[in-house]
Amino acid sequence: MKRGFLLGKFLPPHAGHVTLIRSAAALVDELTVLVCALPDDPIPGATRLEWMRQLFPDCRILLHEDAASPQQPDDHPRFWQIWTEIVRAHHPEPVDLLFAGEAYGAELARHLAAFFVPLGGRVLGADQRGLGGLSGSAVRDDWWGHWQWLPEPVRAHYSLSVVLHGVESVGKSTLADRLADHYSTVLVPEYGRAHCEAHGTDCREEDLTLIGLAQQAEIEAARPWCNRLLIADTDALMTAAWSQMMIGFVPDQLVCHRKADLYLMLAADVPFVDDGTRVFGEPRARARFDAVARDVLRLTRAPVVVIEGDYDARFESAVNAIDALVAERRGQGAATA
After folding, report:
1. Exposed/middle/buried for residue 189 (C-beta within 10 Å: 0-12, 13-18, 19+)
2. How far, in whole angstroms, is CA 83 from its chain's centroid?
3. Cβ neighbours of 6 (radius 10 Å)
4. How far is it, in rounded angstroms, from Cα 33 to Cα 51?
5. How many other C-beta atoms can be found within 10 angstroms of the C-beta atom of residue 235?
6. SS3 at position 251
C-alpha cells in the first residue's frame, strides 16, 4: 500500500487546495490530510475539519490544534523536529509520498524519510491569476472577489443572506424576485404558501413548525448555489409571527436557527389584496400582525432595515440597504485578514 500525507491550515479551503488534494489522492492508495489550527484562528479548526471531511470523504482527515506549535522555522530551533513528531503522532505508519504546494515540503519529507512530490502552481509561481495565486489570506481579505475559487461548504459559510419580512400582501415575493434578478443570484421562495395551497390555511403547531423548518432547510441548501448573496422570500422568524397570531405562542424551533445577515421589514403601507390564501386582511388584524412581525425581529435582535413607500421606492431602499451590507462585510474581511 502506498501512503501519502499532506498538511495545511486550509484557512479557508479553496480551489488550489482542492486540486492539490485530489491530485495527491490519485497517486496513492491512502491519503492523510492534517488540518493545522491555532485556537485564535479566524475560522475554528473544528469547522475546517468538518469542511474538509465533506470535501474529501475518501481521505483520512485529521486535526492538529495546539497554540504551542511553531509556525515558521525561525520560531523555534527544533522546528523541523517538532513538526516531524507532530506528523508521526497523527500518521504513525511510514509516509511514502509527502505532498505540498510549497517548497517547505522538501525539508519535511527529508525528516520523514518520504519522497517529496511538489504539486500545484504555487511551487513554480505559475498561474498567479488563477489556482497558483490563491492563498487563504487573500480569500479572507476578499472572499467576494474570490467567489469562483471557493468550494461548496466555504461558499455556504461566507454567503450573505437577505430575508424579506412582513405581513401578507406587502409585496415580498415581487420584491424578492426583483432583487434576485438585480444581483444575479438565487431566490428561495416561501414554503408556507406552497404548504397552505396543498393543505389549507388552518395551520396547527405541527404545521407551523414544519413550515418554519422547511423554509430554513431550503435556505441552507441553496446557500452554496447563490452568487455571494442569497435572497429569501421569508424565513422561520416570519413563521414565528404567524404562530403568535394563529396559535398564541411561538414554538422554540422557529427562533433557534442561523439568522439572516439582513432582514428587510416591509411596512404594511400598501393596499391589501386577497388572493384566496391570505388570512389577516381586516385592518385591525393586519395592524396587529404587523406589530407582531416587528416584535419578532426586535426580540431576536435581528439586523433589520424598514422598507416603506411604493414598489419602486421599496426596491431602491432595499438595494441601498443590501449594498451597504456588502460594503460593510467586505471591509470587515480586509480588516481581519
Report:
1. middle
2. 32
3. 24
4. 12
5. 27
6. coil
- CA 82 – CA 63 distance, rounded (Å): 16
DSSP 8-class letter at 301: T
283: amino acid identity, one letter: P
Element (H, E) at 188: strand 187-188
Q: Could you report how far apart the first and last alpha carbons of the chain are, in Å?
A: 40
Output the pLDDT for position 81: 95
The three cell numbers locating residue 286: 393586519
| Selection from 189, 244, 253, 240 nearest residue 215 by Cα | 189
The answer to whether the CB of 119 falls within 8 A of the CB of 100 is: yes
DSSP 3-state percent helix, strand, coil across the chain (nearest 5): 50, 15, 35
Q: Tally DSSP H helices, then E strands, for the chain.
A: 12, 10
**Alpha-carbon distance 280 to 284, whole Å?**
9
Low-confidence stretches of the chain (pLDDT < 50) are: none
The span from the CA of 166 to the CA of 289, in Å, is 9
Whether the CB-CB separation of 142 and 333 falls below 8 Å is answered with yes
* DSSP letters for 111-156: HHT-EEEE-STTTTT--TTTGGG--HHHHHH-TTTTGGG--HHHHH
Q: What is the torsion angle, in degrees rounded to the nearest 10, for the CA atoms of residue 204, residue 208, residue 210 and residue 212?
A: 180
- Beta bridge partner(s), residue 3: 30
Q: What is the pLDDT of residue 335?
A: 57
Domains and CATH numbers, the chain: 3-154 (3.40.50.620), 159-336 (3.40.50.300)
Please state the length of the chain. Answer: 337
User: Of 155, 162, 165, 163, which is closest to residue 223 (Cα–Cα)?
Assistant: 155
- The answer to whether 296 and 237 have CB atoms below 8 angstroms apart is yes
Which of left, alpha, beta for 172 (phi over 0: left; psi -120 to 50: alpha)? alpha
CB-CB contact of 5 with 98 (8 Å): yes
Which H helix or E strand runs over 180? helix 172-182
pTM: 0.86
Quick one: which of 193, 205, 201 has its CA closest to 250? 205
The backbone torsions φ and ψ at residue 249, rounded to the nearest 5 degrees and listed phi first, read -155, 170
